[in-house]
Amino acid sequence: MKPLGRLRLGVNIDHVATVRNARGSAWPDPLRAALLAEASGADGITAHLREDRRHIRDSDIEALAAGLRIPLNFECAATDEMKAIALRLRPHAVCLVPEKREERTTEGGLDVAGDAARLTDYVAELRAAGCRVSMFIGHDPRQIEASAAIGAAVVELHTGLYSELHAEDRHAETEAELHGLQKGAALAHSLGLEVHAGHGLTYDNVAPIAAMPQVMELNIGHFLIGEAIYRGLDGALDEMRRRMDQAREGL
């Protein structure tokens, strides 16, 4: 199967805010990082406004919505509070994610199938406001099919387990998880969903995900922000883009 288009790179700037909040100051500024990513070739910016505001704050989302020229992907839990913010700001995309206060980062995919009735109405309101709605899910076919049924435009496949297994050199399990992601991407595409992927991706593990022809966008944050300490954000993005493009060659 030939690739469906250029693979986009979305940059998650949450952890710029994590560093800022560690000192309770105004620096580093997430908007400045987002604008630098924009200037360095990012195709979009992702920011997750958590219920506990542990990194990104309401003022950051306001600034990003006003200041970016590339699309803003607003990650949030499917709560009334977050829906009201999204309906007011109308970002390009809203990615609905599971959220638990005790987790360090998003640990799994959203249970779309188990909450389909509520999410159908939730998604419809966001769509009516002009937002592309994405479901952050695992590769379980039930969740993919439910995402299509409730009217989502996009699924973002959670690559966290794949990334963990790859880092631990658990080769057979890594291959099994990669196969599940490949099947999930193919199913989602067959149902008319745009396919994105993200969580835990690095220079070392990105190629097999980038090589999936149905995947149109990767969203990467923590690794790139960390790598920017050594290379600068522009250099970190350039190297990720190089590896993504190399993985797509010949498809």
Give me some keywords for this one.
pyridoxine biosynthesis; transferase; Pyridoxine 5'-phosphate synthase; alpha/beta; about 250 residues; Aldolase_TIM; pyridoxine 5'-phosphate synthase activity; TIM Barrel; about 15% strand; globular
Q: Can you walk me through this structure?
A:
This protein is α/β, with parallel strands linked by helices. It has a single domain (8-248), classed as Alpha-Beta Barrel (TIM Barrel). It is built from eleven helices and eight strands. The termini are close together.
Gross morphology is globular
The protein's oligomeric status is single chain
CATH class: Alpha Beta
Strand fraction: 15-25%
Please state the average pLDDT score.
Answer: 94
Number of domains: 1
Tell me the strand order in the biggest sheet: 1-2-3-4-5-6-7-8
Helical percentage: 40-55%
In the CATH hierarchy, the architecture is: Alpha-Beta Barrel
Supply Rg: 17 Å
Question: What's the end-to-end separation, in Å?
Answer: 7 Å
SSE pattern: EHHEHEHEHEHEHHEHEHH
CATH homologous superfamily - what is it? Aldolase class I
Helix run count? 11
Number of strands: 8
**CATH fold-type name:** TIM Barrel
Low-confidence stretches: none
